Every structure is written in structure tokens, then in C-alpha cells.
């Protein structure tokens, strides 16, 4: 009985264990001879025994090095065949054509039973001598030295040399048969003669049947640049192989995170493990039952009965699916599932004894109790840069590395965003990365760089990808998403987000969050009672906010919430309060910056977010971080109210107070003076705020030792407070205390004592003992 070519190649392949070097693959090139890569046996000599493992026989034979050709990475080993009927490969020096499929079987380091791999030829390299250059294929360490079977000619056209791992590209390289034969002809002609004689007497290769093509309908646009997911691919494969019944695993994550690409990469890399079929079923737009029946008819030659309903036609397909291996022979992918109940009737039966593995991609978390979740994350910063280098070119990225890092951050390390902007840059060879960054900042999500492109797996741009999820939301969830987009790009304490809602509505709000936004991965739960939007999702929701009739009302409600929280920040916050307020501060900052126009016109409404932010940093002694907020407060009040307004005087006074705390008296003095003059003009000479300004300026002079300048100001402040507030008021006690402190600093103790006594007595009367 004749063998199939893939079975024949496997029978010619051995695993090599080289003492002190490692493991690799080799194959019988002639009776008593094994061919492998020189780097597999590098450093050994004729005295070293290489263990040959064959057909699971670990003690099959021992081989010795005959000759190594370092220049083309080829080595020949000899051994004594323990049996007489070992096959040998048939070598063909004709070079494979571009896009030819080559098949190999090798022994990766972590797979004792070996595994097959299929690659496609995309040309030759510029090396001397040139190597065959492959695309696609998942070549693992340990497969070096495996024979390359040309599926067009049915003969061996070379051997595997290396895999491509920089940037995570698929493919690798191989040594051409012409180079191998040239070396053997010059230095070991007896090996070629032994092979010629063998194939004159043996007709296994001549009579071998072609490999069965794997029935498949995978999308053709597999991304060549695929980085940052190697561990995910390995984990996914392990998950599928561990199942004891039909394995149903759902790759889950937000739109654009690369679920479809991961499933496609998995199917393509491990296609040789699923010889009975790779069936890809688009679940969002098509009826998967009909598509599965069509696959069975077109790819498998099945003829389901037409006089039964669709469910029974599908059942017929499962029962009669061709089986080439006893287990793990078919992979079914349901891509972009939005409703599990719609695909559940068309899943393989549970009693299929591992003949089927099922992959689902979905935006929904916890799709069903019988489905294992396999969540994928955003790419790391390092992997994001690798992806850009692989698509755009290493030199271009390295020339503007800081900008490239900023672009990765701008798209939030979302694979879809990274792939779109990278392919856009590739079409714009004269553009700098800085120019693209400017366009993105200007046009946001509607930028051309974020729109769909041909030739990549994703068929949608960023907006379209998110729109698919958006359309499934109820109005309550849409409004909640818009509300959350007002918060800063930072974790959002749920208690803060839900603060405007009454207790009776809390449950409904949480249902909209959990059952819709979190379930569809539009909102991420990043910690207990803490949630966050991805930045591109936030951009999308902000665009939706602009379309809502109540968009301005939501902005105003957000600002009112932040003003109320800001007003709780005292002039000198405790450390406990600082810790408590830390998660809230980014969202107060959003009110002060992004949504400043929505802050109310009341003086305190505009001032409070800036005041809270500045006091928050001052309370930690972080004056350099506090100063920009006091400056921004001055600018904001001047822009909103004009330069002649009490709020401007207050903001000038606050900024002066910061400078005074730092000992920057020369910077503080003119601000205190301007605040005093402004308050006098706007409020008149007789106003409590004028007294405050007099007191502050006096304290500044006292700190400088300018006692003569400070005294009349303290006296004026005291007199003004008595007139405006009466003799019995806490502010009067403060003025008495301050004036006494001045006299004490001067050594005028007799003048200071009665003022301290009066202040003490007044405070006891007003505030209690």
C-alpha cells in the first residue's frame, strides 16, 4: 500500500540529541547517512556520539559527524542502520517557485512526538550563499535540519535553517538543495551515489500519494507582522489541547484588540494539526448553520439531506465529517459572536470524542457557562513599537523613537489602532511621524490614519469597530458611557461616577454598567469598585456625547459634582485626606481643564477645582506642582470675568500665598498689592476681603522683617474688621493675635501682651473653652 508524501517524509525524519549542544532534527538522505544543519552539531568532532531518536525509539542508533559545511550550514552524519528497510528522501535541485508550498516535519524542543509545518516561498535572501525565504508557518526551535518537501514536485528541495523571530514575523529560511548537492558532489560524492542507487531500487517516493489538502476557508489576509501574542498563542493551544471533550474557548476582548487576528494566526500556525478541516464561520453577519453546511458540501463533499431542517442538516455534517486522525482533527472558528444562543444549535455535539476543537471570538465577557473565557490584553509598549517597526520600517521608527512611543500611547496600545496608523505611514513614505501625530491630535478618531485599509485582517476602522458594539446598547447604557467619558483617562471610583444618582436608581445604573458596557468590553473593571474606559473608546464616547441633546447638561452635572468635591479640600489638608482624594484628583483636573467652559459663572464654581488641585499639592509640599494650578486659576478667572473682578483678586491672593510659603517674597508682594488695590476698587474700602488683603500683605512684610511697613496694615485690618464685623467676631481675634505677633517679633512685649490676652478672651467667649 502506497504512503502519502507527508507520512513518507515523517518516516525519513529523526530527532538528534547532541551532547553539550542541544537538540535538532535530521533526515535519512542515503542508507547510513543523516543530513542536518551544521549549527545543530556545531562544536563536536568525530569522537562525539549523537543520539538518534526514530519513531519514538530513543535508543535507535548513534551517529558520528562525517563532515560539516559551515559556509552553508549543512552537516552529514553517519550511522549503522539497525534495520534494513529505512526510507530515504528524494532530493531535487530545482528551486521552488515563488509562493510554492513547502512541508516539513520536525522535532521542536518541547514536543517529543514532533510536529508538521507548512510554509510558503517568497524568494531568496541576499546572503552568500542565498537561502530560501519563507512567509507564514510556525517554525519552532529544534526544527532546524528538517527536510523541506516541495508539494508541487513531491521531492525534497532543501532543509529548514531558522525561524524569523524579530518583530514576531512568521516564516523563516531554508538551505537550498542545490547548495547541499554542490557540497556533497565536491566532498562526499559517495553519499549522492548511495542515494541514487537507493531510489533506483526503491519506488516508495515514485508511488507516494500526494498530501491531502486541508479543507479550509480561512480568510487570506493573515497579518505578516504579528507581535506580542506569542505567549497567548501558546496558552491558547495548550487550553484547546487539554480539553477532554469538545473544547469551546472564547477569545474575548474589546473591539480592535485583535481577537480575530489571534484566532486566524492560531488556525494558520497550527493548521497541520487539523488535517480534517479548518472551518471559519463569520457569526455577526451570516447564518453560521447555513455557512457550515455550505463548507461541508464544498470542502468535504458531504451531501446533507435536503428534506430536513437546517439543524438536522448540520447534525448530518457533524456525524459524517471525514476523520483523518483519531483525535484533534478539526478546528471550527465562530468569529465575532454577539449572541451565543444563535450559534449554540450549530456547535459540534459534546460526544465527538475530541474530533473537534471550537474557537469563538466575541466582545462579550462570560459568553456561556460551558465556554472557557480566554481574555487578551492590550499590547505592551515594547510590543507596540515592534509592530510599528515591522510595518513601517526599523530605521524610520528609530529616527523618531520618542514620537513613535507617543503614537503608541495615543492609540492606547490597541492593535487595531497601531496597525492602521502603521499601514498609513507606510503609504506616506515622505511623512514624518511628527506630522502624523499632529494630524491625529487635530482630527482625532476621524483621521484618515484610523480608517479601514485593504490588505489587513481588520475590515473596519476604529470608529466602525466601536460602532458595532454601540448599536447593541440601550439608551441608558449609552448615556452612562457618555457620562463616564467625561471623567479623566484614569481609573474611576464607581462611588464617584454614581454620586449624582439617587439610591433608588443605583441598581439600574449598575445593571447598565455590568450587563452592557462591561459585558461588551467597552468599560473595563480595573479594580474593585473601579472602572475605566480605553482612551480610544473614550474618544468614541465623547463624539457620541456631542451628538446627544443632553450633552451640555451632562457636562454641567459633571462639573457641579467636581466643584462640590473640590470645596471639601481645606487650606491645609491632612495626609489621610490627601490619600482619600488621590483617586479623585485626575477627574477634578478634567473639570478644570477639558470641561472648564462648563463650570458655572459663580466665582466659587470656577475657582474651586483649581483651588483643590493647588491645595492638594501644597499639602504634600509639592510647590512646583501646585504653582501651575494657581497660575491657571488667575488665567481662567481673567478670561471668564475680565481683569476687574473679585475672583481675579482672590486668585492673585492665592498665588501670592504660594510664593510666600516658598520664601519668594519679591514675587508675592506685587500680587498681594494688586489684589488689595483690586478689592478696594471693586468692593470699596469697607469690605471684609479688603481686611484679608491688608492682613496678608502685613504678614508678608513681617516675614521679611519689614515691621514698620507691616504695623499700619495690621492696624487697618483690625480696625476694618471691628467696624464691619463688630467687636465680637473670630476674625477680630485673628487680627488681635497677628498684631500681637508683630509686636512680639519686635520685642515690644508690653504692647503685645494685652492684645494676646484680648484675643484669648474673645476666642473663649466665641468658641468656648
Description:
- 43% of the residues are buried.
- The protein has a 6-stranded antiparallel beta barrel. A 6-stranded antiparallel β-barrel has the order 7-8-9-12-11-10. A 5-stranded parallel beta sheet has the order 14-15-16-13-17, sandwiched between helices.
- It is built from 30 helices and 20 strands.
- Helix 20 crosses helix 23 (603-618).
- The chain starts with a helix and ends with a helix.
- It has 769 residues and is of the alpha+beta class.
- Helices cover 47% and strands 16% of the residues.
Strand content: 15-25%
Oligomer: single chain
Helix content: 40-55%
Question: Which class of secondary structure composition applies to the elements?
Answer: alpha+beta
Radius of gyration (CA) equals 38 Å
What is this structure, in a nutshell?
This protein is of the alpha+beta class and 769 residues long.
Task: Please render the helix and strand layout as text.
Blueprint: H1 5-11, E1 13-18, E2 22-30, E3 33-36, E4 50-54, E5 57-69, E6 74-79, E7 101-106, E8 115-124, E9 132-135, E10 147-150, E11 155-163, E12 172-176, H2 177-187, H3 189-201, H4 204-207, H5 230-242, E13 247-252, H6 259-269, E14 277-282, H7 288-300, H8 310-320, E15 330-337, H9 340-343, E16 356-362, E17 372-375, H10 381-392, H11 394-399, H12 401-410, H13 415-427, H14 433-443, H15 462-470, H16 475-485, E18 492-493, H17 494-497, H18 503-518, E19 524-527, E20 530-532, H19 535-547, H20 551-566, H21 575-581, H22 585-592, H23 603-618, H24 623-641, H25 646-661, H26 665-683, H27 688-704, H28 707-725, H29 730-746, H30 749-767
Helix pairs in contact: 2-3, 7-8, 10-12, 10-13, 16-18, 16-19, 20-23, 22-23, 23-24, 23-25, 24-25, 25-26, 26-27, 27-28, 28-29, 29-30
Amino acid at each position: 500500500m502506497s504512503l502519502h508524501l507527508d507520512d513518507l517524509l515523517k518516516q525519513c525524519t529523526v530527532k538528534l540529541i547532541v551532547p553539550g549542544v542541544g537538540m535538532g532534527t535530521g533526515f535519512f538522505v542515503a542508507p547510513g547517512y543523516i543530513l542536518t544543519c551544521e549549527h545543530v552539531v556545531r562544536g563536536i568532532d568525530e569522537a562525539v556520539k549523537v543520539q538518534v531518536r526514530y519513531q519514538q525509539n530513543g535508543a535507535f542508533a548513534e551517529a558520528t559527524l562525517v563532515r560539516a559545511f559551515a559556509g552553508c550550514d549543512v552537516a552529514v552524519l553517519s550511522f549503522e542502520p539497525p534495520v534494513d528497510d529505512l526510507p530515504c528522501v528524494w532530493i531535487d535541485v530545482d528551486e521552488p517557485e515563488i509562493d510554492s508550498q513547502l512541508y516539513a516535519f520536525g522535532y521542536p524542543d518541547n514536543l517529543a512526538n514532533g510536529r508538521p509545518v507548512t510554509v510558503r516561498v517568497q524568494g531568496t535572501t541576499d546572503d552568500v550563499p542565498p537561502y530560501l525565504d519563507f512567509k507564514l508557518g510556525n517554525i519552532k526551535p529544534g526544527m532546524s535540519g528538517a527536510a523541506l518537501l516541495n508539494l508541487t514536485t513531491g521531492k525534497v528541495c532543501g532543509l529548514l535553517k531558522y525561524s524569523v523571530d524579530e518583530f514576531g514575523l512568521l516564516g523563516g529560511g531554508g538551505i537550498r538543495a542545490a547548495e547541499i548537492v554542490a557540497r556533497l558532489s565536491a566532498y562526499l560524492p559517495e553519499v549522492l551515489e548511495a542515494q541514487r542507487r537507493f531510489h533506483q531500487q526503491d519506488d516508495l517516493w515514485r508511488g507516494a500519494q500526494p498530501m491531502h489538502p486541508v479543507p479550509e476557508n480561512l480568510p487570506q489576509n493573515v497579518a505578516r507582522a504579528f507581535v506580542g501574542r506569542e505567549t497567548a498563542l501558546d496558552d491558547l493551544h495548550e487550553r484547546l489541547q487539554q480539553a477532554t471533550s469538545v473544547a469551546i474557548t472564547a477569545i474575548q476582548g474589546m473591539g480592535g484588540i485583535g481577537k480575530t487576528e489571534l484566532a486566524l494566526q492560531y488556525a494558520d500556525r497550527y493548521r497541520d494539526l487539523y488535517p480534517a478541516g479548518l472551518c471559519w464561520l463569520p457569526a455577526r453577519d451570516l447564518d453560521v448553520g447555513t455557512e457550515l453546511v455550505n463548507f461541508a458540501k464544498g470542502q468535504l463533499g458531504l451531501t446533507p439531506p435536503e428534506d430536513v431542517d437546517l439543524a438536522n442538516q448540520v447534525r448530518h455534517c457533524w456525524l459524517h465529517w471525514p476523520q483523518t486522525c483519531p483525535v484533534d482533527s478539526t478546528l471550527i472558528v465562530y468569529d465575532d459572536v454577539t449572541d451565543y444562543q444563535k450559534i449554540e444549535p450549530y456547535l459540534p455535539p459534546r460526544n465527538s470524542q475530541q474530533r473537534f476543537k471550537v474557537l469563538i471570538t466575541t466582545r462579550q465577557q462570560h459568553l456561556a457557562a460551558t465556554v472557557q473565557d480566554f481574555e487578551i490584553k492590550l499590547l505592551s509598549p515594547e510590543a507596540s513599537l515592534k509592530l510599528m517597526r515591522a510595518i513601517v520600517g526599523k530605521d524610520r521608527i528609530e529616527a523618531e523613537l520618542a514620537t513613535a512611543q507617543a503614537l503608541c500611547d495615543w492609540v492606547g496600545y490597541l492593535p487595531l489602532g497601531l496597525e492602521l496608523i502603521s499601514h498609513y505611514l507606510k503609504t506616506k513614505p515622505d511623512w514624518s511621524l511628527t506630522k502624523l501625530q499632529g494630524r491625529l491630535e487635530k482630527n482625532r478618531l476621524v483621521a484618515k490614519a484610523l480608517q479601514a485599509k485593504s490588505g489587513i485582517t481588520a475590515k473596519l476602522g476604529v470608529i466602525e469597530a466601536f460602532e458595532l458594539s454601540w448599536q447593541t446598547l440601550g439608551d441608558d447604557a449609552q448615556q452612562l458611557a457618555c457620562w463616564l467619558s467625561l471623567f479623566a483617562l484614569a481609573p474611576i471610583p464607581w462611588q464617584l461616577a454614581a454620586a449624582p444618582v439617587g439610591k433608588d436608581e443605583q441598581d439600574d445604573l449598575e445593571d447598565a454598567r455590568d450587563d452592557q458596557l462591561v459585558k461588551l468590553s467597552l468599560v473595563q473593571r480595573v479594580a474593585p469598585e473601579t472602572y475605566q474606559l480605553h482612551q480610544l473608546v473614550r474618544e468614541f464616547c465623547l463624539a457620541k456625547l456631542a451628538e446627544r441633546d443632553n450633552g451640555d447638561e451632562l457636562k454641567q452635572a459633571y462639573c457641579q459634582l467636581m466643584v462640590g468635591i473640590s470645596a471639601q479640600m481645606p487650606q491645609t489638608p491632612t495626609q489621610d485626606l490627601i490619600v482619600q482624594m488621590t483617586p479623585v484628583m485626575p477627574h477634578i483636573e478634567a473639570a478644570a481643564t477639558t470641561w472648564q467652559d462648563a463650570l458655572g459663572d459663580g466665582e466659587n464654581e470656577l475657582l474651586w477645582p483649581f483651588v483643590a488641585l493647588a491645595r492638594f499639592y501644597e499639602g504634600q509640599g509639592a510647590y512646583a506642582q501646585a504653582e501651575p494650578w494657581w497660575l491657571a486659576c488667575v488665567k481662567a478667572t481673567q478670561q471668564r470675568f475680565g481683569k476687574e473682578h473679585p475672583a481675579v483678586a482672590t486668585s492673585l491672593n492665592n498665588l501670592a500665598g504660594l510664593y510666600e510659603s516658598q520664601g519668594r517674597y519679591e514675587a508675592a508682594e506685587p500680587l498681594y498689592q494688586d489684589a488689595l488695590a483690586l478689592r478696594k476698587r471693586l468692593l470699596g474700602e469697607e469690605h471684609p476681603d479688603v481686611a484679608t488683603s491688608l492682613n496678608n500683605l502685613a504678614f508678608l512684610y513681617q516675614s521679611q522683617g519689614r515691621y514698620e511697613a507691616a504695623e499700619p496694615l495690621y492696624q487697618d485690618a483690625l480696625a476694618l474688621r471691628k467696624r464691619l464685623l463688630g467687636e465680637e467676631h473670630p476674625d477680630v481675634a485673628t487680627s488681635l493675635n497677628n498684631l500681637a505677633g508683630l509686636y512680639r517679633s519686635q520685642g515690644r512685649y508690653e504692647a503685645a501682651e494685652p492684645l494676646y490676652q484680648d484675643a484669648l478672651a474673645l476666642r473663649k467667649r466665641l468658641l468656648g473653652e
